[in-house]
Amino acid sequence: MDIDAWVWWLIGAVGLGIPLVLTAMPEFGMFAVGAVAAAVTAALGGGVVAQVLVFVVVSVALVAVVRPIAARHRDQRPQHRTGIDALRGRTAVVLERVDSSGGRIKLAGEIWSARALDAGTSFEPGQQVDVVEIDGATAVVM
Q1: Which of 14, 61, 73, 105 would staple 92 via disulfide (CB 3.0–4.6 Å)?
Q2: How far apart are CA 112 and CA 106, in angstroms?
Q3: What SS3 class is residue 123?
Q4: What's the angle, vertex CA 94, arms to CA 89 and CA 100, rounded to 5?
């Protein structure tokens, strides 16, 4: 049984796709695309040298172009703050007197425990305060 070269390249592409799925390393996917390009070259009648050259050029080009783009996207922080990060810097309304020992505020529609950032500062009900940080379940305000 004589198998054409393009079939071998497709088998190689599938073989490179398996570690891509198992290890989540995108480089294997880029090599698999290179193998598919070499299979197309073989199907169009290209010689062995042309097939290997197409495989190498396509694979290296994908790694050189796609990998830096993927790394840049991976390293970017999300643009929307969530959780306690989203509460920092927001304005709250004092419900019960807030001083360095405690108090209550309404923050983002919820009632929170709060304490003043500065020991000598206190805030009366109805005043607006800024949330500096969240310490456990307590908002630190000023």
Answers
A1: 105
A2: 6
A3: strand
A4: 80
Q: pLDDT tens digit string along 87-119?
A: 898 999 999 999 999 999 999 899 999 999 998
Q: Which of 7, 33, 10 is nearest to 20 (CA)?
A: 33
pTM of the predicted model over 0.70: no
CB 33 within 8 A of CB 26: no
> What is d(CA 35, CA 72) in angstroms, rounded to the nearest whole number?
26
Rg (CA), the chain: 30
Distance CA 43, CA 30 (A): 20
- Residue 59's contacts (CB-CB under 8 Å, 6 or more residues apart) are 30, 31, 33, 34
Phi-psi region of 56 (alpha: psi -120 to 50; beta: other; left: phi over 0): alpha
Residue with tokens 């405690």: 102
